[in-house]
Amino acid sequence: MRSNLHGPLSAYAARLHATVGDRHHVASPLGAWLLLAVTATTADPDPAEADEAAAKLAQALGTDLPSAAEVARTLLDAPHPLVGSATALWHTAGQGDGGSAAWRAALPRTTEVGALPDQAGLDAWAREHTLGLIETFPLRVGPDVVLALASALATRVSWATPFDVADARALGAGSPWAGRLRQALRSPSEGHRCAIVSTAQAGDVIVHAAPAQTTDGAGLVVLSVAAAPQVPPAEVLAVAYDLSAGAADGAPPAGGRSLFDLPLGETPLWTLTEERVHTWARDGREERHNAVLPCWSARNDHDLTAPALGFLAAVTTLATALALPVEDFKARQTAVARFDRYGFEAAAVTGMAGITSMPPEGVARTAELRFGHPYAVVAVATDTGADGVTGPWHGVPVFSAWVAEPEEVPEA
Fold it and tell me: Which domain of life is it from (predicted)?
């Protein structure tokens, strides 16, 4: 069953890309939106009780908080075979246990909850959940951080049919890349989808769709959309999101132009030629498409603190649920992607942190406990249900030992 995510996510993507600007970049609006939606699970579900932060969070999400929370649970608890996903909610040890306990039960089952790791632990989390594509967590976490929420998305796929290779001059005489590159990618004769589409926002655009190899019926399609050079990037991105709604179904995009309705010759977007061929086309007029694209890669770090992106409202909502003293916040996303002849890989980690004032200066003592002579060990079972009621195994010693013959730490 499809979720009702496409409309809200398209609107959110427009705002996020607008904050980045027109420079070469990759981002994951979904990664940022999911983080906000996980926050929505902790909000009061009663609209009558919603405060200003909850209202602004719903505005950023483009839907009501219960609906956003349900979408987050649905996507995260049933992960896609080709798109790894993870979320985590951490708080400072000894804090974050106040407030109602209901927020824990409302989180997606797969959301990791626990004490805030150190920076090395956060970096390890980023690597683990991005196939190693992102080495470091997007935020630096110091002693003034009392809570952090993170999301990660990652994919690495091979095309069902790889690209062919073409001379880069095939990108067109007017292309600024044709003289800089030696080779480009050409779509294979079968397996990829191409079209010229008429749109209200950007006029005629060209579309290329490359499907990845499927796993258990699940797949991934990478859609490329180009408009005339003078069309603003924001409008082209909006068209791409509109067309992506039908890309997964493999149907021809709405507004597709017949090649026989277009004049022969060259434009900044295509070259149209005609030749006599033998064809089984019903009216004797056969249409063929191919596409030439460059390989590309990008790595970017994005500041997500702009008010329109909703992270101030999110951290306020979360701090209220956990009864934590948050005075400020920071939010960033690191995203990477690579598109080449044989496949596509991309990853994004989005992080949000709530900051409090530094605690007053004091004195700390640290005791290093040394088990340097024979000692006792007892293994005790724990048995606590989701409702907090303990079961019959709770507190039962299961194993015990007296350690009097230590061993060397193994090398492996």
Answer: Bacteria
Residue 290 has a pLDDT of 87
- Token output for 95: 């804090």
Other C-beta atoms closer than 10 Å to the C-beta of 347 total 27
Residues 34 and 137 both lie in one domain: yes
Would you place residue 179 in the very low, low, confident or very high pLDDT band (cuts 50, 70, 90)?
confident
Between CA 113 and CA 304, with CA 39 as vertex, the angle to 5 degrees is 105
List % helix, strand, coil for the chain (3-state, nearest 5).
25, 30, 45
Q: Give the domain range for residue 222.
A: 193-290
- Identify the CA nearest to 137 among candidates 88, 81, 84, 73: 88
H helices then E strands: how many in the chain? 8, 16
Type of residue at 183: Q
DSSP character at residue 357: P
- Give a yes or no: residue 400 inside a domain: no
**How sure is the predictor about 376, in pLDDT bands with cuts at 50, 70 and 90?**
low
- Sign of dihedral through CA atoms 120, 123, 127, 132? negative
Distance CA 225, CA 233 (A): 11
Do 254 and 245 contact (CB within 8 A), yes or no? no
Paired residues of 210 in beta bridges: 222
The answer to whether residue 366 sits within a structural domain is no
Please state, in angstroms and as integers, the Cα–Cα distance from residue 175 to each residue in 180, 255, 283, 328, following that order. 10, 26, 35, 46
Q: Is residue 406, in this structure, part of any structural domain at all?
A: no
Q: Quote the number of domains for the chain.
A: 2
From residue 161, how far is each of 82, 164, 171, 208, 210 by CA, in Å?
A: 17, 9, 21, 13, 8
Predicted TM-score of the model (pTM)? 0.87
263 domain-assigned: yes
Residue 69's domain is classified under what CATH number?
3.30.497.10
pLDDT of residue 350: 97
Which distant-in-sequence residues (6+ apart) come within 8 Å of 10 by Cβ? 238, 241, 242
